[in-house]
Write a structure and sequence with these properties.
Strand content of chain A: under 5%
Shape of chain B: extended
Oligomer: heterodimer
Structural class of chain B: alpha+beta
Order of helices and strands of chain B: HHHHHHEHHEHEEEEEEEEH
Helix content of chain B: 40-55%
Number of helices of chain A: 9
Structural class of chain A: mainly alpha
Largest sheet of chain B: 8 strands, antiparallel
Distance between the termini of chain B: 41 Å
Chain lengths: ~200, ~290
């Protein structure tokens, strides 16, 4: 299995792994004042991770629209960012809230849950590759567990930041991660993973 | 540490979130315990698998499409402000009249709003309170329809709200919960980083309770930081060492609202002051 650690942004730039996204406070301030170039820098530094997180919550079909809504929200509310948390944490928190709002609106309209039909169809297939296997297993977890797992395993956030993003006490993050990891492992094993 | 303790803290150990001493104790146990070692190994394999299978391409929409939307929104704002500017002279006379009327209204309303006038009101429940103080079912239907009430059990309610609803209440022995919903308030406006509610932000629990005689009352519970206007109370009951209880309605058709710790609780369909005091007594802070 090929392991690639690089990420490619819309502009083609590579993003480092981990929580640091190398945005200077000056860039954030200029973006908050409406400077388009700085807003573009913010977007290109963060959109990949935000999109991945949003996709994990709302599913593939709505991820683009919700991600755009998140950044419109970010740029219109940036002046209220009071630096009590890291800027990235604040953006993640808005992303989680907007994605969950989207899910609630969709459920009120009685539409399908997170890519339910697609996931169900894929799960029936015997030729799932390992990436699809993870998608299927992840989709079976509760939304909050998916979010926490994504923030830890992919975004490598420390527990304190995860707690701020999700809005739970720091002490709860570990127990939720325990639950998420065990459930995901069991789901994967049910789907044939031998890890 | 024993197996149970290690199991409960395995993610903290795996993610390096333990202090040195905890980590050492955990490590000692894992070295001697094949079961815990296998569990840890499965976490490690899972983590490697998830990371290695992460999609490496960025699928976010291109910046240009977002920039276009931002420009459109700016133009809408600009057009609104330009229209307002060009009409300013035509509206001058009307403006003076409107300002006078607003001042008059403000003078009348000041005693009612008091310091709350400065608060940002996100949710206005004053009409629901004044119309349905004594009609919990109507209030329940109205609120559910207006704020997308979702039927939940208490476990799901706790997950969505970030706290166990009803825990701040002293429900009489012969009262039982018959139905519960979570209402979606428009947005969480807690100070950034201060919200302790669930992953969906500041929502509201709506719980229908039934007395032994079959009559019902409704309890709303939300984070105190949610700016909700309940309107002007008919009376305020003061409690030693606690914030007052605001009482709405008359005689035996009452609603009441009070704060316990950081929760705002509001009950519809109460029948007496004694019942109000009983419900709110759990919320009395130690003096």
């Amino acid at each position: 299995m090929e392991v690639t650690r690089q990420r490619v942004c819309p502009g083609g730039d590579e993003l480092p792994q981990g929580a640091s996204m190398s945005l200077s406070p000056e860039t954030v301030q200029r973006a908050a004042r409406g400077d388009r170039d700085s807003q573009q820098q913010v977007y290109e530094a963060m959109s990949s991770r935000v999109h991945a997180l949003v996709r994990r919550i709302v599913g593939e079909h709505a991820a683009d629209d919700v991600t755009q809504d998140v950044f419109i929200h970010v740029f219109t509310k940036m002046q209220t960012f009071n630096q009590e948390s890291a800027f990235e944490t604040w953006v993640y928190r808005l992303a989680v809230n907007d994605a969950l709002q989207y899910l609630r609106r969709e459920r009120r309209r009685s539409t399908l849950k997170l890519d339910e039909s697609t996931v169900a169809k894929r799960a029936d297939r015997a030729d799932l590759d390992i990436r699809e296997l993870i998608e299927v297993a992840m989709a079976r977890l509760e939304t909050e567990l998916r979010i926490i797992l994504q923030l830890k395993e992919i975004d490598k956030l420390p527990y304190e930041q995860i707690a701020q993003v999700v809005g739970v006490p720091v002490g709860t993050v570990g127990s939720r991660l325990n639950k998420a990891r065990r459930l995901l492992r069991d789901e994967l094993r049910q789907l044939g993973w031998e890890g | 540490m024993n197996c149970q303790q290690v199991s409960a803290n395995l993610s903290r150990y795996f993610d390096g979130e333990m202090n040195e001493e905890e980590s050492r104790l955990c490590q000692c146990h894992i070295d001697d315990c094949p079961d815990c070692r296998a569990e840890l190994a499965s976490f490690r394999s899972l983590s490697t698998l998830v990371c290695s299978c992460q999609d490496t391409k960025c699928h976010a929409p291109h910046w240009d499409s977002l920039a276009e939307r931002l420009d459109q929104e700016s133009q809408v704002e600009l057009a609104t402000s330009t229209r307002a500017h060009s009409n300013i002279y035509r509206r001058w006379t009307i403006g003076i009249l409107a300002a006078s009327a607003a001042s008059l209204l403000l003078l009348i309303a000041l005693p009612y709003f008091g310091s709350d006038a400065k608060r940002e009101i996100a949710v206005d429940l004053s009409k629901v309170v004044s119309a349905y103080a004594g009609q919990p079912i109507r209030a329940w239907e109205e609120l559910s329809s207006k704020y997308a009430g979702k039927d939940v059990d208490l476990v799901e309610a706790k997950r969505l709200l970030g706290y166990q609803p009803l825990s701040a209440l002293r429900l009489p022995d012969n009262v039982q919960l018959v139905s519960s919903k979570v209402l979606s308030f428009p947005e969480c406006i807690c100070a950034n980083g201060k919200c302790t509610c669930g992953p969906g932000g500041c929502n509201c629990a709506a719980m229908l309770c039934q007395r032994a005689d079959g009559s019902q009352f409704l309890v709303l519970e939300h984070c105190q930081s949610s700016k909700v206007n309940y309107g002007k109370p008919e009376q305020r009951l003061t409690r030693t060492g606690s914030q007052p209880i605001e009482v709405f309605g008359t005689e035996n058709r009452l609603a009441a609202s009070w704060v316990h710790r950081n929760h705002q609780l509001t009950a519809f369909g109460l029948t007496s002051q004694a019942e109000i005091e009983l419900l709110a007594s759990a919320g009395k802070d130690p003096s």
